[in-house]
Specification:
Chain lengths: 439, 439
Amino acid sequence: MLSEFQQHLSDQFSELKKSSFLIACSGGVDSMVLTDLCLKSHLDFALAHCNFQLREIEADKDEAFVKDYALQNGINFFNKTFDTHAFAEKEKLSIQEAARELRYTWFKELLKNTKYDYLITAHHLNDSIETFMINLFRGTGLAGLTGIPNKNDKILRPLLVFSRAQIEDYANKNELKWKEDITNASTKYVRNAIRHEVTPILEKQTPQLYASFLKIFDHLKADQNLLNDYISQIKTEVCIEDGQKLKISIKKLETYTNKKTILFHLLKDKGFKAWDDIVDLLSAETGKFKKSQTHLLMRDGEFLSCKKLNKMSEINKSYQLDNLTDKVSFEAGQILFEKADFNLKNNPEHALINPKKLNFPLFLRKTKSDDKFSPLGMTSRKRVWDYLKDKKVSVLDRKEQWVLTDQSNIIWVVGHQIDENYKVLNTDQKCIKVVLVKP
Amino acid sequence: MLSEFQQHLSDQFSELKKSSFLIACSGGVDSMVLTDLCLKSHLDFALAHCNFQLREIEADKDEAFVKDYALQNGINFFNKTFDTHAFAEKEKLSIQEAARELRYTWFKELLKNTKYDYLITAHHLNDSIETFMINLFRGTGLAGLTGIPNKNDKILRPLLVFSRAQIEDYANKNELKWKEDITNASTKYVRNAIRHEVTPILEKQTPQLYASFLKIFDHLKADQNLLNDYISQIKTEVCIEDGQKLKISIKKLETYTNKKTILFHLLKDKGFKAWDDIVDLLSAETGKFKKSQTHLLMRDGEFLSCKKLNKMSEINKSYQLDNLTDKVSFEAGQILFEKADFNLKNNPEHALINPKKLNFPLFLRKTKSDDKFSPLGMTSRKRVWDYLKDKKVSVLDRKEQWVLTDQSNIIWVVGHQIDENYKVLNTDQKCIKVVLVKP
């Protein structure tokens, strides 16, 4: 296996031979084999060990074991102890998810703060097959069937072509020492069931099971890459990234046959589920929308516009301004006051206000559906919503419009128009300029 | 299940409600349930039964059973008896493959010769899952994981959303009668092993197994369709179909990131296996080639050219012409003789030959690498290959070049040039025109 490993490094992981890296080392058989292979290949690396404090004295013994091994072999050693239970509780995660989150956050920190360029893990072919099966049981798509990725940014996995049996065989033949792997012992029921019940049956049915899965992962990754190329091309053609918004041109999308699948790919990280409903938006009237947990997708004229939902706390947020020296930083920038002469130059980012009318405290908040004001030059009142609609502001932007008010009235539809009642009556008069400084 | 079936027809198979169709009916539980569902849905159909003569008396009993059922229910009935063993032996196929070939050939004949527009089969979700698993064991790509297709031209499969358990449950509850299905009993070892060992383990692990697979097949088919759209688009951009040849522009292909995967998709039905070697052709010199069982792929100037290999019998084929009234029809058209006046007009499809030199029998054959001739106007001899190369004929076409010879010399490099020694000496002389009539 050593020579196969070295060949595999040359073919696929040449960066590891030219740089120094960390090995995520639990002390289990997989990571001890990986460490031994790297040691015998004379690579430049250090060990990184996580103590999740999940098995009390055993976890400390694992840590001591890896530390001792590093010392004996003259390898640099990093370790960190986590209060996994507390973190899981605080973040409302399962112990598994918490450990994973803590582990990878620490690994990234290490890569940032040390001389090491990469971190490698001992994930192997059986892990990849188990992930494939778990995703299968969940009703996955193509992406879920491509196995564990070889490379994820700075995290590399050079053992993915070897089976668990090969790794254990190498450990035994080379008389390596290891500790029962905590992550194996604590993995979830489904993974263990696959490991101990499903894989043995599959192995019995087909002697070439591992070779088949290597081929499958290769083929599916290749197809996935090609599909991603196509999605990128389509995205360039049909999408506009407009600040926080993704706008999908319906006209351009309609030129493709498989619209629904394309929408799925364009929006797949936005949390939507009911794809039939999403497709229906293509022929809905302006203003119709669907929400996921995190995003809003709206028919908006010629576009489907998608934007991240504000958290509830932000939606009802209101900022208070108590006097002329107050400044408020909010989503759309910063609001501040200046004393100014009357200035005929129209600038939507400035509101010139009659100081006699200014009655602190003022408030900055999102507009509501029943907000009305008298746009400058008009005596009748109009819904803010209708005013913006007439100015061709998109539905999505109308919903996000900020207004500056006092305790009873709208003073300024921010970035658009002031209310007639707050206008400067005498152009010689000193006035207050409210300034929107965009970020 | 009846109402689910009817809903499924409305959603996905509305063509069946508007037309008349055949049911492939073995007499097994699956096809008897399908027949019963169609009967109770008042559809317009007939039964088609194959007797493969594989289980002697039992096969005849099955046939009688289905025939009897059709008679009792006033359904039109078609049947055909096959000598499956003899066909398998003759065509060197397994019994399974032979039965499949015979079955579908007959079904297509029936569709052509009867009033029925479609044929439907009773394949169900478990069949699809088994196909998925079999392909998994073989190391398939995306296409192999999309399950059995719903529709293949005129063959439809409206039971693919139902599991075997649902079907058997329906049969029992409705007290249907059926015969042990010959295709089930005789399926290969792997399928049976999956059915009896793998699926039960998977079912035990995940209660939602069938729902998961329905989702997987949906997702993967959608991705497969999108990928096919992309391949078609790429094909339009990088390929030229030139008669029997597929020419791939290397320059255009090089603009894509995932060249290897694209080549795989462009050439996947041509029998190639060693894709690394195929990719190497992109940077090889003109004339380098790779062969599969059926095709030749050659670096040919700015292109990779792919063409079907001639069978060995055709490669060495030589046609004999015994006198002036003989005609020969061959790959490139037809060769015939005409008497003619000398005609200065140069036409590559005509060869004007001095009748005094014409010495029957003549032969028409592919050029060989050591063929030489004296092109008209030259006294020295030149390799046919070099002559064509100077005329910028592509390597692939040079290999396919025909020559007209007598027993010792080349008379005409067909469609290009005659030999100096056969030219007409006196322009007043009557001459023989050899004419190539292109197809």
